[in-house]
Amino acid sequence: MLTDSNISSPGEDYDIAFEMPSEQFWVAANSLFNSKEFVELSKHAFQIMGYQKCPIEMRHFFVYKKEYYPIYNASILVDLYKKLLSLATAKEFQHHISLTWGKSIENTFNFSNNDRSRVLIAPRIFNKDTGKPFTNNRLAFMAVSEGRVLVAIDKGDFDNLESVDAEIMAFNLLHESNQLRLCETYYRKELKGGYAFDVLAEMPVHFLLIEPFTDITAHGVSWVKMESYFHVLL
Fold first, then answer.
1. How far apart are alpha carbons 166 and 43 in whole angstroms?
2. How many helices (H) and strands (E) in the chain?
3. Most buried among 13, 147, 168, 217, using CB within 10 Å?
């Protein structure tokens, strides 16, 4: 919302320690404070605007003679997001993670009718012969490229790592016997359902474990290969 307005003027000297925001950015930030979404979250937003208890990097207002003055810091949206995440229940937090992954994958790969880039969102393991679900869990997403299959598993959807291993064992059991079918639980209006894909026994499969984080201020990114799957920390 504020990105397009947060730009420096051409020829600006970048050695300066402080920079006055442009009038365009000031107007954009002022509009944000008056937006419907921001007003609806005002009780939570107020908690990142204080000047006494907030960390210095999260202070977007200062107070003088009981009057609040905005600093118009572009990171206010990031800090508000961080605050909202801290107030969410475990169930709400995991639901938010699932929506974030689903929308990101859908908008990146499933924006056209090209089946070569199709990614299944939130698929479940089905027994191809019986046509019935083989487990009660959902995977994060599944992609196929040149006959190779990538299966992502969000650890937040499972109670512990043992239950993740059990899901992978069930997957491999059907895969080796050529009975594996993955069916989307992501509802598509145009299909009145979702896509399905039969994973043939000769297709190599790689697993990707995902740590459930979206707070960009809290964690770095690293990749660690662990036995038969890759582990992603966000």
1. 43
2. 6, 12
3. 168
pLDDT digits (tens, 9 = 90+) for 99-148: 887 788 887 777 656 554 578 999 999 999 999 999 999 999 999 888 89
Task: Read off the DSSP letter of residue 48.
Answer: G
Hey, CA dihedral for 152, 157, 162, 163, is it positive or negative?
negative
Cα–Cα distance, 148 to 82 (Å, whole number): 37
Backbone phi and psi for residue 147, each to the nearest 5 degrees, phi listed first: 80, 0
Could you tell me the pTM of the whole model? 0.62
Q: What is the pLDDT of residues 49-61, one digit of tens each?
A: 554 555 655 566 6
What order do you get walking across the sheet with 132-133 strand by strand?
132-133, 123-127, 180-184, 196-199
Q: Which two tokens stand for residue 155?
A: 């650890």
Distance, C-alpha 147 to centroid of its chain: 27
Task: Tell which phi-psi region holds residue 208, choosing left (phi > 0), alpha (psi between -120 and 50) or beta.
Answer: beta
78-93, pLDDT tens digit by residue? 777 777 777 788 888 8
* Biggest distance spanned by C-alpha atoms of the chain: 74
d(CA 74, CA 30): 12
Residue 196 has φ and ψ, to the nearest 5°, of: -135, 155
Determine how β-strand 205-210 pairs with β-strand 229-233.
parallel
- Amino acid, res. 28: A
- Distance separating alpha carbons of residues 68 and 62, to the nearest angstrom: 6
